[in-house]
């Protein structure tokens, strides 16, 4: 089987190379050669097929415990639960490269199979770009990181999977994130296809926007699951650490979000064409850059793979593709002139432009902070690092400004807003926001940023509610529909607009939840059984945690030391919480890896009580605990789900064809759109 | 306050001038400069206030002997734990160990829970301050775990 896998890698390599050559050579119709174009199309299917065979071969080797493969021996063991055997495919560098190439070829084939109508003219070039990128990944595997590499001897057992990867999140988070991260290649391929074929009318934009949404949605969900995983597994009491790898995933997300906003300006007004293309190319380059920094060991991170020569491949690829795409872009600039000018500073266009600047400002500061250790060493000769305080200090004000624009943007008319229009639009949302902040101030909240975040959140929710109410009322008047039906149809008929507002609502919830972390409290205690510690919550009540005792037992592939605590709040018993230390063992019962913690979490709408077992004192039942109160964490998960729901509504096929209202130079008003 | 046609109300005067004398593009450029400037300012001040030197023990020794102000300065030191020097007092939650890069050796004191991956032979990044008693008082200890730590393939 490993031989079959290795051979199919070579096959995929050759087919991918063929697809890239024929796709570029076939060129754009009608002048291009149809036979070559067809060949490039088939090449994507063949490459996908060959890579699937390679993945299946690797999975079979993993499930059969074929430790003659270096990869299988390094990341799995005989006693690894079946659930995690699947995910061993992407637990290490080599396998994850295979997974990456396979997912990319899946998208490449899907695009070829699913694209219909006008956008088909781009397909040969799209096939060429996707094949070229996939071939690069296969090249890295074949020449630097082959998952089918054999060991000179066959070990009795493998080294096993890092215990921190043995969490249900491992099964969902990496695939989701990969789907998002990798599918950025598709809009990028369309952008390159449009540039190469010089078909830079409004068509390419629609194709790019759809695939960007797909990518954005997967990436959002992947980031969210990653945050959840970090929170429940790593035990440091938070969900976002500004770790280089987290930043690497956030960067393309920020740029894509900027694109999804500015693309509307191009659709409605025919402006910002150069900007939009640059954003898409930039988002893709950032995704390759992120892959480079996490796989080369250039920057240390909890996520990083071991240092290897793979980094040089990525650096070279980044430089070559970056130079080539921007050279192509520069040569097509004369074709990308704007069809309209900015007429007023107080207009929807201008607010989108400011929104874009803020997104890019955040992205730039994140990139800069991530690279700062390298940059400072190059320039000054001394490594200077920046951590979460830097990212928070810079991004909280920028994030709040962005939140404000989230509320302002939808309230301002396209082209030019008049003063009466502004008064009518801002009255309700502004009042809602002001009162929200005032109520919290009176209630005793004194943190400036938290007040701002929640006040602005109120403002945005006011905006969204006003938009929904006006839309529903208009339908009610015009068609005599009941309000509930009118609201449903309003969303169904204008999925982009109202789905977008739902995303905004989710973002507000996320901001409020982030603000909650300003009130996090923490304490550590060493307790004998029967002793208790207390921790005061920011809401004013006091939790009392009583240590009930330690139990030790063997489970599946680990020895567990569990501590049980009784929790009460202001004298009222709430139940018990368990937190564990796990020592994973190999098939012979010998310890592998360092012990890992299992966090005990009691979650409700207002706050999480988060308990970590630090250790047990020399064989007695005395134990050390860290107790943390994290306000509003629940809202992160649900706010994130609302964002994903809104994204799904926006990209759901069918509905009002957005292209119809996208003639440049003027805005078409749809029924229910009253501005 | 100087006299103006608007009875001292500068804001009205400014608004008037702004509405009549500036094109939308110019106004937008001003807004853009404001945003870009704020981003730049926030980043520069952020780095100045929160940036920390990342040094090896030898570099730290060199810096301290050249410039005593490096005592009590927040910094990070990347080094290897000296095997056999780790003592944990779980009751007081105090962790003591020595770190070295092969030439210079510093004792470290850390109050709190060490990370799961901390053992007496790992590479660590110690975040804290070197006090005049020659001990690094750590506020955070991060453990790197060499080749065994191939973790989440996020990207």
List the keywords.
heterodimer; A: 675 residues; Four Helix Bundle (Hemerythrin (Met), subunit A); Tick-borne Encephalitis virus Glycoprotein, domain 1; 4-stranded antiparallel beta sheet; 19 helices; disordered C terminus; B: 155 residues; alpha+beta; OB fold (Dihydrolipoamide Acetyltransferase, E2P); 2 domains; 5-stranded mixed β-barrel; 3 helices; elongated
Return the average pLDDT of chain A rounded to an integer: 88
Uncertain runs of chain B are: 146-155
What's the shape of chain B? elongated
- What CATH first level of the domain at 1-161 in chain A would be assigned? Mainly Alpha
Strand content of chain B: 25-35%
What fraction strand of chain A? Answer: 5-15%
Q: Please state the average pLDDT score of chain B.
A: 78
Largest interface: A-B, 82 and 48 residues
Task: State the shape of chain A.
Answer: globular
Largest sheet data of chain B:
5 strands, mixed, barrel
Order of helices and strands of chain B: HHEHEEEEEE
CATH class bucket of the largest domain in chain B: Mainly Beta
Percent of residues in helices of chain B comes to 25-40%
Largest sheet of chain A: 5 strands, antiparallel
Strands side by side in the biggest sheet of chain A: 3-4-5-6-7
Spatial separation of the terminal alpha carbons of chain B: 60 Å
What Rg of chain A is obtained from the alpha carbons, in whole angstroms? 27 Å
The chain-level structural class of chain A is alpha+beta
Q: How many structural domains are formed by the residues of chain B?
A: 2
Whole-number radius of gyration of chain B?
Answer: 26 Å
Number of strands of chain B: 7
